[in-house]
Automatic annotation (TrEMBL):
InterPro entries: AB_hydrolase_fold, DUF7358, Fungal_lipase-type. It comes from the Eukaryota. Keywords: Hydrolase, Membrane, Transmembrane, Transmembrane helix. This is Fungal lipase-like domain-containing protein. Residues 3-229 form the DUF7358 domain. The lineage of its organism: Eukaryota, Viridiplantae, Streptophyta, Embryophyta, Tracheophyta. Residues 367-525 form the Fungal lipase-type domain. One of its GO terms (biological process) is lipid metabolic process. One of its GO terms (molecular function) is hydrolase activity. SUPFAM superfamilies: alpha/beta-Hydrolases (SSF53474). It comes from Kalanchoe fedtschenkoi (Lavender scallops). Gene3D superfamilies: alpha/beta hydrolase.
């Protein structure tokens, strides 16, 4: 029964490695009496590696079956910590054996490469080389020469085939069948360990040893749920083929007739303040995008490495390096003096945002620039895209603000509760506490004694100035939520979000359209990326695949390859804000949307 559950690739790998052991053993027995140990080492090493690879496949099969049995037997709700720990332990055991098999595959590939090199060298010398094994075989009976040729051929085949066959011995579908919960649990473990190892490679070792539920676990849960289409019998290549079919049959989206054009003045202001949002990327990411070949030099130049004597004149930002390089990079990009940068944070933890606060006296404006995704912590904030309920404090600028029309406020109260992207909401709450979150005397004019109040309050340095909050991508979404909370305190406020992630429900997005402007460039995907849009896209791709009568295995591979390698494949991004226009208000695609 277990033979039916084997993958065809596993059967090929197993038989090939067994042949390699047999052929290698015959060659060693034939040539060992005449040749030294050094001469026959490679012919002993390759069969030994194949034997170890067979043993590893046996252990992988046992570990894979134990993993699948554990996942199928455990409840879907991860409420029991001991059961969840057991599932992770069995998965790690299977993962360890697959990594060991991968290491043996690398050794077999190196052995095959050396064998080919040795064979080519022998032929290039006109069979006069001092290679004892090849000389003995070529001068012996014909069957020995055939054995040598077969050994070299099988060794090369095994080395190449194993690179594409994968390490799984059994078909996962033979265990999970169409159990949706089992597939979700399986891919949760896959993504959980994959993300933790990736974070470890980026220097975040603490995530590798964490076993409790944390941000990585939440992101892995979401990604695992998105791959639930495997329960219907659909493979990854088939999904890609469905996307290609959807792209082939889709038409370019056209702007709705009732879409309003944003005022030219709004466009001009958005273009003016864009540099502040772009400058917030003070790491090497911005320089890599602009100068992919010399970006280390460009980044070090922006960090002020050539002007260390000006270090003391730069403001000290939270998390900045000894040289205060991030402050120097920001100021250099926007071409402002050091005294213009008043506050900031560049090295933040998870669910926190990096930001910069600058004062522009020549235009009577205070600018808060929120950085987008640049660090692993930002990626975790992006991935925490489950919905969360917005509190009254989060919507303070809309619900308790006389500048908002009474009808809009009544509508917001009647349609509550309202929801948002959980990672972005928590980052916006933290940022609010950083810039203006300290409650002061209730009888004071501003109601707070935070940093912004010390700048914009009555009689302060920037009394009467405008407040502008800008950000790109993740930073634009956080800036929008921060602006909603601050709008009640600072009515002379406007938010410019560039390529912002979807982060609010439609009612809130529509209510804040007067003071939040979102700019979406052409088919920029980030403004359309959300859980619900991915689910709709996945459903449309599977529907397109099921409705195509000509779909077969060859077409699936062809369409999947086309989707992966074609450059101009943005036709399926037809939801959300129109691709050819920018508009005022938060980006939303209808219904409830959450981005990540």
């Amino acid at each position: 029964m277990w033979i039916k559950n084997l993958r065809y690739a596993s059967l090929v790998v197993g038989v090939s490695n067994f042949l390699l052991v047999v052929l290698g053993g015959v060659l060693v027995l034939v040539t060992a009496p005449r040749c030294g140990r050094a001469d026959v080492f490679i012919y002993l090493f390759i069969p030994a590696s194949a034997a170890v690879r067979l043993a590893a496949m046996y252990k992988i099969g046992i570990a894979q079956e134990a993993t699948a049995t554990t996942i199928v037997g455990l409840p879907a709700a991860d409420d029991d910590g001991l059961l969840r720990h057991k599932r992770r332990v069995t998965y790690k055991r299977w993962l360890w054996w697959t990594r060991f098999a991968l290491m043996m595959t690398v050794l077999q590939f190196l052995g095959a490469a050396y064998l080919i090199f040795d064979f080519v060298r022998y032929v290039s010398y006109g069979e006069t080389s001092r290679d004892c094994v090849l000389g003995t075989v070529s001068n012996s009976e014909q069957w020995k020469l055939h054995t040598m040729v077969s050994f070299v051929t099988v060794a090369c085949f095994v080395a190449l085939f194993q690179c594409f066959a994968g390490s799984d011995v059994y078909r996962w579908r033979s265990f999970y069948m169409t159990q949706d919960k089992a597939w979700k649990a399986h891919y949760r473990e896959v993504f959980d360990h994959g993300i933790r190892e990736a974070l470890c490679c980026l220097g975040r070792v603490k995530y590798l040893s964490a076993l409790d539920e944390d941000e990585v676990h939440s992101v892995a849960q979401l990604l695992g749920d998105l791959v639930a289409y495997r329960a219907s019998g659909t493979g990854h290549l088939e999904l890609l083929a469905g996307l290609a079919l959807l792209q082939r049959h889709s038409q370019t989206s056209r702007p709705p007739e009732d879409m309003l054009e944003a005022p030219e003045e709004r466009f001009a202001q958005a273009a003016t303040f864009h540099q502040f949002a772009e400058a917030a990327y003070t790491g090497p990411l911005l320089d890599f995008g602009r100068n992919p070949f010399i970006f280390p030099c460009a980044w070090l130049y922006r960090q002020g490495i050539l002007t260390p004597w000006s270090r003391n004149r730069r403001p000290m930002l939270q998390g900045d390096n000894w040289l205060r390089g991030h402050a120097a990079a920001y100021l250099k990009y926007v071409k402002l003096p050091a005294e213009a940068l008043r506050r900031g944070r560049v090295c933040q933890a998870k669910r926190e945002a990096a930001y910069f606060i600058v004062v522009l006296h020549h235009v009577n404006t205070v600018v808060i620039a929120v950085r987008g995704t640049e660090t692993p912590e930002d990626l975790l904030t992006d991935g925490l895209c489950r919905e969360c309920t917005l509190s009254e404090e989060d919507l303070e600028g809309l619900l308790n603000n006389d500048h908002i029309h009474p009808d809009i406020r009544r509508q917001l109260h009647s349609s509550s509760p309202h929801y948002g992207h959980s990672g972005i909401v928590e980052a916006a709450r933290d940022l609010f506490s950083q810039v203006d979150g300290n409650l002061g005397d209730p009888g004071s004019a501003t109601g707070s004694t935070g940093f912004l109040s010390s700048l914009l309050g009555p009689g302060c340095e920037c009394d009467g100035y405008k407040l502008c909050i800008v950000g790109h991508s993740l930073g634009g979404a956080i800036a929008s939520l921060l602006g909603i909370r601050l709008y009640g305190r600072y009515p002379n406020l406007h938010v410019y979000a560039y390529g912002s992630l979807p982060c609010l429900d439609f009612a809130i997005a529509d209510a804040c359209s007067d003071f939040i402007t979102t700019i979406v460039y052409d088919n920029e995907f980030s403004a359309r990326l959300s859980v619900s849009s991915i689910l709709r896209l996945r459903g449309a791709a599977l529907t397109a695949l099921s409705q195509d009568p000509k779909t077969d295995t060859a077409l699936v591979f062809k369409l999947a390859r086309r989707f992966l390698y074609v450059g101009n494949h943005l036709g399926y991004c037809t939801e959300g804000v129109d691709a050819s226009s920018s508009h005022s208000g938060a980006v939303i695609t209808g219904g409830l949307k959450f981005g990540f």
